[in-house]
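Quarterly update, task 2.4: FE2/S2 (inorganic) cluster-bound model.
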Amino acid sequence: MNSAAIDRFPFSPFPIGWYWVEFSENVKSGKLYSKQWLGQSLVYWRDSNNKVCVADSTCPHLGANLSPNRGGSLRDGLLVCPFHGYCYDASGLCVKTPAGPPTHKLSLNTYSTRETGGVIYAWWHPEESSPQWDIPDFDEGNWSNLVYDSRVIHTHPQETAENGVDLTHLPYVHGYSQVESLGPLEVEGPLLQNRFTLTRRLGPSNKLCVTLRVSAVVSMWGLGVSTIEPTMEEAGLYIRQLALCTPIDGSRVNFVMAMQMKDIESPNALVPGLSMVPKRALNAWLLRIFFNVYRKDISQDFEIWENKKYLIYPRVGPDERPIVRFRRYCQQFYADSPESVT
Ligand code: FES
Ligand SMILES: [Fe+2]
């Protein structure tokens, strides 16, 4: 573990929970992939039955590296080790060797996976316990495909998640106005929700812009998986933003921003005359515009996240109590905390 990370945050860089591994469309059947994920070197692939396997890249036989750039390969849906040719199926089990069936039981160190809404997630726990909660079925509802982007930044998932309860930075950093909380944080085990409304001006200049009054719900299923769902009811506009924060090692995270949208119901309520635009083109165009706004908004946080110090005793004001409540919620995700989910 990186000692800079230990010095910077008074908690583990790897909270218990679900984390983004990859987007479904980027994991093709018959191809082997690797990446650095929560301080581990991973391999992952999809077999011919569409089952995804996410595993450590170390062969349990004699420790060879199974990554594709170190000689690991896929043959007939099985992962083949470059050292003695043992073959592993998508459950991680060694099912054959060049000399025939394995003479003893061997398994890759695999991670529980969940594929939903176009994203592959894997479960991480320091003691390798099985998942203690699920993430929702993001496949439900008529949502568009995801558009996405990512950035590697020096921070911690707790810091990026804290943004979702920090309403007072929204006007100052992002330029929103009339930000109003719709009630206290709702916490139920690993699920935290925060509801608020805000006004957002969109356009190239103050004169040439539309003013949107939106209500938003931030939902977190642990510190690695959050959604922000802005809604503008009168236009029938429903957007889902994913904020997926996956530690790479002890000091860096991969911060993934993704967005999908439902087809807009009343475009004229957004901008008069918009319903003249053909529906398909309009929805694709709006998704692109809103995604660029989301990406720009989040990028305003990056520099602050990278350079801020985590204060154990922040001097928050009375209207910032949700930050304190959020930090209490976070304790369940650290194995050494008395409130841990273990
Ligand atoms: S080290 Fe992988 S088969 Fe021997
Ligand atoms: Fe922010």
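Highlight for this quarter: Residues 163, 169, 173-174, 301 surround fe (ii) ion (ligand 2) (CB under 6 Å).
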